[in-house]
From TrEMBL:
Top-tier EC class: isomerase
Name this protein carries in UniProt: Glutamate-1-semialdehyde aminotransferase
EC number: 5.4.3.8
Cofactor(s) it depends on: pyridoxal 5'-phosphate
Family: Belongs to the class-III pyridoxal-phosphate-dependent aminotransferase family.
Taxonomic path: Bacteria, Bacillati, Actinomycetota, Actinomycetes, Mycobacteriales
PANTHER family in UniProt: GLUTAMATE-1-SEMIALDEHYDE 2,1-AMINOMUTASE, GLUTAMATE-1-SEMIALDEHYDE 2,1-AMINOMUTASE 1, CHLOROPLASTIC-RELATED
Keywords: Aminotransferase, Isomerase, Pyridoxal phosphate, Transferase
Gene name as annotated: hemL_2
Pfam families named in the record: Aminotran_3
Membrane-spanning parts: none
Domain of life, per lineage: Bacteria
Classification via InterPro entries: Aminotrans_3 (IPR005814), PyrdxlP-dep_Trfase (IPR015424), PyrdxlP-dep_Trfase_major (IPR015421), PyrdxlP-dep_Trfase_small (IPR015422)
Annotated GO MF terms: glutamate-1-semialdehyde 2,1-aminomutase activity; pyridoxal phosphate binding; transaminase activity
Amino acid sequence: MTSTRQALGEQESALRGRAGRVIPGGMYGHMNVAAFSDTHPQFMRSGNGARVVDADGREYLDLMCSWGPMILGHNHPGVNAAIVDQLGRGDCLDGTSPLAVEYAELLVDTIPAANWALFCKNGTDAVTTCVTTARAATGKRKVLVAQGAYHGAVPWCALRGEGIVASDQEHLIHYEYNDLASAVTAAEEAGEDLAAILVCPMRHDIKRDQEMVDIEFARGLRALADRTGAVLVLDDVRCTHRLDLGGSWEPIGVRPDLAAYSKPLANGQPLGAVTGSDALREAVRSIYVTGSFWTGALPLAAALATLTELRKGEALPIMERAGRRLRDGLAAQAASHGFVVNQTGPVQMPMLSFADDPDFRLARAWAEAAATRGVYLHPWHNWFLSAAHTDDVIDAILARTDDAFADVV
Ligand code: PMP
């Protein structure tokens, strides 16, 4: 038995009290842990490898990797060294760091569908830039998006929330992921006004089991884009680098015209990237996109170090091995405790749901029990593994999740 802890620590409670006064709701967006748990800490002080430490000094084995960014693990020495080295020379300068050119060269060399790259700060910037580029290239307005797919939290694509007006999304037409006929129907609805088909490498919508892409669907979207003159945009933000360094659809041989990347590009430093084909070079040059911090040197230094490390070829096999070990272990545990669970998606981006749990009561209880036993995982969003998830880390996680299953009643 691993030990349980009191739900929330003293520092955590004090910080929540203070935050409630100066940060609306105590916290907002996906980082609002109160929205999914009574036991997960809101505040974290540090992280190392596959471990994070909360404000009260409690350590957690981390299965979220900061919701994706930490692909090499927290506080990675090689990435840190690159950041510190650049810090001595400056971060935010009048002009772009030469590192941007070096990193663009490395990215273009890594991603077969990429003839060029441009950089921004996060995934939303990257996807928005893709859509703008597609409209500039085609002179059309309509964008096909999968029902329920997350592409960012700005008005043109946000899934929910007050303050969004219908006209913000009037040029989106929805299709069902992995249902080619629905995409064809959506394209027909767009008629002569179709600019882009936006798609994620797999279905990883919140609060539903993940779904791998059907190859025929992916090929069908490629053909649909070719037939209609629309731009095929792959939103690879969440899957970036974890499935394949060359782009998540590279293994199935379907190449997008534009792709958006972010999350783990710079192992936790803020960076997004758009890559594209030669055919879209002029279009992307014609749009106006920028931001005060888009050319900061520290994220570029971190990204170069991260991709150089990933290209050595060890990290992805470690994540896959860890993911299989975790999935097998959780399957055995769930069965031994009498639960039917669904484990979906690629093993390096795991997701576990309970059968007959439409309101996620069991998933939440299990995730909360895991947190009190020192494992940080989410009840209804996919998790992320990193190169720091070695066998001993997975075994330590499994020792605690077993007890967490026992806690679920
Ligand atoms: N697209 C996808 C598929 C994502 O998962 C996310 C982030 N969860 C985004 C876009 C937006 O990225 P960011 O939060 O970095 O702006």
